[in-house]
């Protein structure tokens, strides 16, 4: 996916059982975190992601975390969200690493961060991690 390409649409179940699609988020920037409960580098980004969520709380951006855990550990995923007090929109991808989302974005390793503009176009299909200063610089440029 190149900058300016239309993002593939996705629709997944949220932690509270609702189906959320990319279409539901149109009009806002979308920062996607692709992760799993077993992924140590993913978990290391959680505190930094929380800081970004707080920093841009009243801005035109939503933070979406898409878990690529296997279906059999869905309850573990839900408990992880509660235990770690994860914010943003928490979604569970179908078919783990074989999900349409992973295939559409050619994601073969995690964590992976993706930034989409309010019209649903790709800004960066390999956006910088929440822990990087350049992430804040980029988001400040877009949102201020």
What are the key terms here?
7 strands, 7-stranded mixed sheet, 4 helices, globular, alpha/beta, 144 residues, Glutaredoxin
- Alpha carbon gyration radius: 14 Å
Strand order of the largest sheet: 2-1-5-4-3-6-7
Strand content: 15-25%
Main sheet properties: 7 strands, mixed
**How do the helices and strands follow one another from N- to C-terminus?**
EEEHEHEHEEH
CATH classification class: Alpha Beta
Question: Can you give the mean pLDDT?
Answer: 95
Number of strand segments? 7
Residue share in helices?
25-40%
Q: Which structural category do the helix and sheet elements fall into?
A: alpha/beta
Summed up, the domain count is: 1
Poorly predicted runs: none
Give the distance, in angstroms, between the N- and C-terminal Cα atoms.
Answer: 26 Å
Full CATH superfamily name: Glutaredoxin
So, CATH architecture? 3-Layer(aba) Sandwich
Q: What's the shape?
A: globular
Count helical runs. Answer: 4
CATH fold descriptor: Glutaredoxin
Q: What features would you describe in this structure?
A:
The protein is α/β, with parallel strands linked by helices and 144 residues long. The protein has a single domain, classed as Glutaredoxin (3-Layer(aba) Sandwich). It contains four helices and seven strands. It has helices at 40-55, 74-83, 100-104, 133-143; strands at 11-14, 19-21, 29-35, 61-67, 89-92, 112-116, 122-124. The chain has a seven-stranded mixed beta sheet. It starts with 10 loop residues before the first strand and ends with a helix.
């Amino acid at each position: 996916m190149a900058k300016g390409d239309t993002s593939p649409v996705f629709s997944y179940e949220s932690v509270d059982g609702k189906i959320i699609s990319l279409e539901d988020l149109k009009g806002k920037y979308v920062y996607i975190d692709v992760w799993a409960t077993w992924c140590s580098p993913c978990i290391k980004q959680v505190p930094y992601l929380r800081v970004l969520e707080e920093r841009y709380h009243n801005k035109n951006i939503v933070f979406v975390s898409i878990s690529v855990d296997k279906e059999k550990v869905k309850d573990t995923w839900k408990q992880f969200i509660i235990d770690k007090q994860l914010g943003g929109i928490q979604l569970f991808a179908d078919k783990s690493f074989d999900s349409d989302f992973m295939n559409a974005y050619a994601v073969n390793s995690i964590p992976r961060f993706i930034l989409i503009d309010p019209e649903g176009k790709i800004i960066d299909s390999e956006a910088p991690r929440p822990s990087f200063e350049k992430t804040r610089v980029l988001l400040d440029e877009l949102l201020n």
